[in-house]
Amino acid sequence: MATAAAAAAAQRNILDLPFEVLDLIYKELIYQLDKVNLAKADAYLGEAFAFHSHQQLKTVAPWQYIPRDAWPVLLSLCGTTVREYLCSNSHNWSHPLAKLVERHCPHLEMVDVNVNADNCNSVRSMIANARATIKEIRLDVDNRIKAKIPPMMLHEYPELPQLRKGTFVRFTNEEVFHIQKFSTLVELTLNTGKPDHYQAIKLFEITASLKKLRTLKLFHYNLVESGAAPSMPFPCLEFLQINYCEISTEMPHCPKLTSLDILNCKSSSENVLNRCMLKHGDTLVNLKIDCRPSLCDGEGFLEILRRCKRLRFVYAQAQRVKFTRDFVATMMDILQDNGVTTDEPLHLLIYGRTKVSWLRHWLS
Asked: CA 226 to CA 78: how far, in whole Å?
């Protein structure tokens, strides 16, 4: 009896081990290629490898230290765990890898890629294949080489019913117009990628269909008047960030806006940025102002505090504000009327060591 048991034990091999033990073995293997080779040895070992990798292989990127011939095995075993595809340099794009992702990764949720003329069709194919699951896309047009600039492509993209977050960098106005098909967007970032040029955009016309938008970030645009702009283009917008932009039109009222960042902007219309801040006085909680020349003087700063009673964070470039004793006393009276207390304070960040010193002096 004992002899039979010993013989049976002697015949056991690695295939008799449970996944939990094989997981420990896979953890001891330093190089991914060694893990893949072990997984290829037997179907059971492949299943164990999938068990081992289900919390690790969530992101696929061409630059990962994984041999090309390992990807087919790796994704065939673990593709269902993949959620993200990243390729920040279009020159690293791999068409075979993209096809493997399409074939073996049915739960892809995010694609973040640099797009040029060589890979634009492959990128579109990957996103279209994942249209039922994709929640975030970040597309950055590679315009370093003129001959490699991709043709217009967004008009060929399907609707993405699960898409919540979109970032579009270096797209032309004609291309940006087509983002309106992504009506489920909650977060949108638009960046021309041209620090020395303000690209004119009829923003409110383009985004008219994005009724669910809560966060909007703009970089290096000139916001111009839209001929057919809706009366309330952003009914759900809560956070608006305008960076390095020129404002050539009146900004709309956003009834739910709580955070407004106006950074390094200028306006061709007098006081349009001030009016944008004041018209949201009933809802603003966080405000960042950093423009040169400064948007407001001392009286303008006090008016913002009077009108925006819910403000609890202010980051300001206060170049034209003089913190005299009378000014600080008036400011404190306004804040008291606004319900600011030690338990619910206003956090004030201002530029200028001298201004901070005077403010502290009059508060002491």
From this structure: 48
* In contact, 254 and 278? CB cutoff 8 Å: no
C-alpha–C-alpha distance, residues 229 and 232, integer Å: 8
Q: What is the distance between the alpha carbons of residues 306 and 125, in angstroms, rounded to a whole number?
A: 53
- Looking only at the bridges linking them, the beta strands covering 246-247 and 221-223 are parallel
Q: How many CB atoms lie within 10 A of CB 155?
A: 10
Buried b (16+ CB within 10 A) or exposed e, 7-45: eeeeeeeeeebeeeebeeebeeeeebeebbebbeeeeeb
Domain ranges of the chain: 11-56, 59-185
* Cα dihedral: 294, 300, 303, 304 (round 10): -10
Residue 169 CB partners (closer than 8 Å, separation 6+) = 138, 139, 140, 141, 191, 192, 193
Closest to 157 measured CA to CA, from 183, 178, 141, 132 = 178
What number of other Cβ atoms are within 10 A of residue 299's Cβ? Answer: 12
pTM: 0.87
From first to last of its 364 residues, the chain has per-residue pLDDT tens of: 556 555 555 567 888 888 788 788 878 888 877 887 887 788 777 777 777 776 678 899 987 777 787 788 888 888 888 999 999 888 889 999 999 999 999 999 999 999 999 999 999 999 999 999 999 999 999 888 888 888 888 999 999 999 999 999 999 888 999 999 999 999 999 999 888 778 899 898 888 889 999 999 999 999 988 766 556 678 999 999 999 999 888 888 999 999 999 999 888 776 788 888 999 999 999 999 888 767 788 898 999 999 999 999 999 888 888 999 999 999 999 999 999 999 999 999 987 788 888 888 888 8
The answer to whether 228 and 255 have CB atoms below 8 angstroms apart is no
Beta-bridge partner residues of 201: 223
Choosing among 1.20.1560.10, 3.80.10.10, 3.10.20.30, 3.40.50.300, the CATH entry for 59-185 is: 3.80.10.10
